[in-house]
Structure formats: structure tokens, C-alpha cells
Task: inverse folding
């Protein structure tokens, strides 16, 4: 982390090892075989299933649940992986409560949907634990594709291209592949080094060479890639960090929440991680929730999320908001930080209450101060530079169709591309669809 363990108020080992192990256990225990059959039995197997439409990767949900119900979970996993090769991680981290499960007929009728996410995890875990990769690579095409970014979009694209018989060089700036699945997911959502295991399993398709420590703009140029490869896919996510634009944001103890989560994800010993006694998280998305909850689980005495708009506008789902509250996190809405207080190190945050007038956010002039010895910024990320002069829209790479950029032979998807939601499952869909379009373009 950028903060020293000796920064006043920030210290490691606030809880003992047993408490940390309990706090960071699997958020949702996996279903056993009997539980999966009972859960599957609740599905109506709708012929015009709204859950399929609500899934960004359009998995045939009734089919895979029927396959579980008939005792063939491995076939169910194949149905899932046909559409979403990262179906195991998506089963853990997708906001199913606002996607497939919200659209479930059972949810509409009874207020209790079929547990689609847990059933998906049950099926994918069964197949992956057997060490089986359900796909066979097509005959080599002789085409070479560069994929920049080994996160959900890049991995999805690389696997689909390799499946079609193309050779793929997969580049990532980090020391390990996986992207946000490896570095940005809450520890309790993906335990037991699952992201790395999923990456190893995906690579069994063959035809993919992973090159880490290779960043676009530093080690790679789009000009060289387009000259050396038949096609290029950009899925490197967002590396820049938005500024808070508040006085004092450079004080010691102010950290980017993404870095905080990455440090936690890579820590071999959770007790060695320093955390503040009074933590303030600024933002309203999933990163804010994950950072706040994990601060509390590490032993912070008080954790507060400050979100500048009202609850209805908060990007994090109501389920995630309630999860944070259940873990002891306070969320203050219509609260805009205007100054980070302190003399060198942070001691508090001055906040102004706000109100919304249409799309405009208006400061009321009423302020309050909240104690803090650690402030985590979760206010979004930005594209780092403009790769190869590509056209930009809304701070991201402009794409049309299945990820085509303004430059011929270059596609993009995931968080770095404009359009869509910044979700793991959306990134997987965009990578998959771009791969299909690349294949058509190369073989047409």
C-alpha cells in the first residue's frame, strides 16, 4: 500500500488470525448435491425465460438447471461455459439480484427467485474440480491475434479465438493474469485463490501464450501490434484514477480503494495488512462497498461510506448496500467530501450535504466533519492515455458493433470500451462477441 503501517491510526493485526479467517470465509457456502436438487426443483423451466434475456451472456438458464435436476451437472456446466467461459467467477461475483434472479418468475410471484447464481456455481465447480476442460480446439488457422489485458474481457476473447484455431498472445501489465478477478474482487467473494485456478483451467484450451508485465504504452505499442498480428483486441481495463478534487486529498492516509483491495487480494497474511481505526470510503459503486466491508472485516472500529447522491442513484445494488450495513458499515447519502482534514496525516473529512435538482447536484451549504485516519477513494477510474490515436467517447475507447474501434483490425471490450455496464459478466460477453467478429473478419 502507499500508506506506511506507521501512519498514525493505521496499523496491522487489529484482529487475531482466527477472527480474520472467519471474517474472510466464503460469503455464500456452496450448495451440496441435495441442496442443488432442491434449488433446481423450484425452476419453472419457462419456454420464454426472462432470466435468459436478463443475463448479459445469454446463458440458457432453464436448460442448465434442468440438467442439474436430472443429475447431470457436468452437462449443465458445458451449457454455461458455451456462453460464458468465466461462468464460475460470474456465479460468485455477478449481481444476480439485479440481473437473472430479479427477472425470475418466482421472484415476481413470490419474492424469492430460483438461486440461479448458486446453481451456476454448483455446476461449474463440479466440472472444474474434475480437472476437465470441456472444449477441443479447432484445427490451426495460421492466424495470430494479440489480446491486451488478461482480465475478464481479454480472457473471454482469447479463449474463444483459441477455440476457433487461432494463435493468441495474451499480454497483461500485472505480474499475474486475471485482471479484476485476481486483483479487484472482494476476498470473501472469491476464496481459495479461485481466480488463478480458473485462469489455469481456461488456458487448457491451448493456443494461448500469456505474457505478464507488458503494458500498452510502456512495453507495447498499438502500431507494432497491428503490424505483427492479424488482429488486436484491447481489454486492458482502466488504469487511471479519478481525482477527488477536494482540498487535502494528498495527505498521508488517503489511498485509492482499488489499490487497497489489490493489496488485500495478494496478501499472504491478512494480519499483516494495515487498516485504520476510523475509515472513510468515498464513492457509491461496488469498489466502495468491497473496500468498506473489508476494512471492517480487517478490524476497523468504524467504517463510513460517503456517497454524494441519494440511495436510488447509488450504483451498488441494494443487496450490496444491505450487506455493508449488516457488516457494520454506515452509509451516508447526499454527502460530498469537500476537504480532507489534518496536518500531514489525515484526521478527518469535511462533508457538505447535497440535493439533486434533475441531473444537477447542488450543495446545500450545510457541512459536518467526520473523524478519519484512513480515507479510501472509490470514485472511478479512467483510461490511461489514448492508445494509438483511437477515437474516444466518454473517456473510453469508442466501439461499434461487436467491439470494432475506429482503427481497422483493432477491437476493444470490457471497462476500457464505451457502452455497457462495468460488470464482469458484461466484459465476458463483450470479449466473446468481439472474438466471434474477429474470427469472421479473419476467415471471411
Result:
Amino acid at each position: 500500500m502507499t500508506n506506511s503501517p506507521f501512519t498514525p491510526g493505521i496499523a496491522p493485526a487489529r484482529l487475531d488470525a482466527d477472527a480474520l479467517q472467519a471474517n474472510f470465509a466464503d460469503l455464500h457456502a456452496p450448495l451440496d448435491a441435495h441442496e442443488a436438487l432442491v434449488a433446481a426443483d423450484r425452476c419453472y423451466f419457462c419456454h420464454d425465460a426472462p432470466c435468459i434475456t436478463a443475463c448479459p451472456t445469454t446463458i440458457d438458464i432453464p436448460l442448465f438447471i434442468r440438467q442439474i435436476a436430472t443429475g447431470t451437472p457436468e452437462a449443465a456446466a458445458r451449457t454455461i461455459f458455451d456462453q460464458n467461459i468465466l461462468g464460475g467467477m460470474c456465479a460468485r461475483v455477478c449481481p444476480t439480484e439485479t440481473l437473472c434472479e430479479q427477472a425470475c418468475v418466482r421472484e415476481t410471484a413470490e419474492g424469492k427467485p430460483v438461486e440461479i447464481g448458486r446453481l451456476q456455481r454448483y455446476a461449474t465447480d463440479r466440472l472444474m474440480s474434475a480437472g476437465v476442460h470441456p472444449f477441443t480446439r479447432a484445427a490451426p488457422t495460421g492466424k495470430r491475434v494479440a489480446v491486451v489485458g488478461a482480465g475478464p474481457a481479454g480472457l473471454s476473447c482469447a479463449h474463444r479465438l483459441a477455440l476457433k484455431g487461432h494463435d493468441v498472445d495474451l499480454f497483461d501489465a500485472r505480474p499475474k493474469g486475471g485482471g479484476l478477478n485476481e486483483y479487484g474482487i472482494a476476498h470473501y467473494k472469491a476464496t481459495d485463490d479461485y481466480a488463478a485456478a480458473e485462469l489455469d483451467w481456461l488456458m487448457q484450451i491451448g493456443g494461448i501464450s500469456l505474457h505478464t508485465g507488458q503494458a500498452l504504452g510502456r512495453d507495447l505499442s498499438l502500431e507494432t501490434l497491428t503490424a505483427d498480428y492479424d488482429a488486436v483486441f484491447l481489454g486492458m481495463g482502466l488504469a487511471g484514477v479519478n481525482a477527488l478534487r477536494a482540498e487535502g486529498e494528498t495527505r498521508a492516509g488517503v489511498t485509492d480503494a482499488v489499490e487497497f483491495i489489490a493489496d488485500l487480494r495478494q496478501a499472504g497474511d491478512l494480519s499483516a495488512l494495515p487498516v485504520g481505526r476510523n475509515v472513510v470510503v468515498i464513492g457509491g459503486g461496488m469498489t466502495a462497498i468491497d473496500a468498506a466491508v473489508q476494512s471492517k472485516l480487517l478490524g476497523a472500529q468504524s467504517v463510513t461510506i460517503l456517497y454524494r447522491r441519494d440511495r436510488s442513484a447509488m450504483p451498488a445494488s441494494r443487496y450490496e448496500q444491505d450487506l455493508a450495513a449488516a457488516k457494520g458499515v454506515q452509509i451516508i447519502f447526499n454527502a460530498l467530501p469537500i476537504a480532507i482534514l489534518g496536518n500531514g496525516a489525515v484526521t478527518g473529512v469535511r462533508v457538505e450535504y447535497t440535493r439533486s435538482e434533475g441531473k444537477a447536484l447542488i450543495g446545500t451549504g450545510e457541512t459536518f466533519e467526520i473523524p478519519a485516519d484512513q480515507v479510501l477513494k472509490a470514485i472511478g477510474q479512467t483510461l490511461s492515455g489514448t492508445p494509438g490515436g483511437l477515437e474516444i467517447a466518454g473517456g473510453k475507447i469508442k466501439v461499434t458493433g461487436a467491439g470494432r474501434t475506429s482503427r481497422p483490425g483493432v477491437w476493444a471490450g470490457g471497462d476500457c470500451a464505451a457502452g455497457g455496464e462495468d460488470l464482469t459478466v458484461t466484459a465476458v460477453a463483450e470479449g466473446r462477441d468481439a472474438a466471434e467478429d474477429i474470427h469472421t473478419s479473419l476467415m471471411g
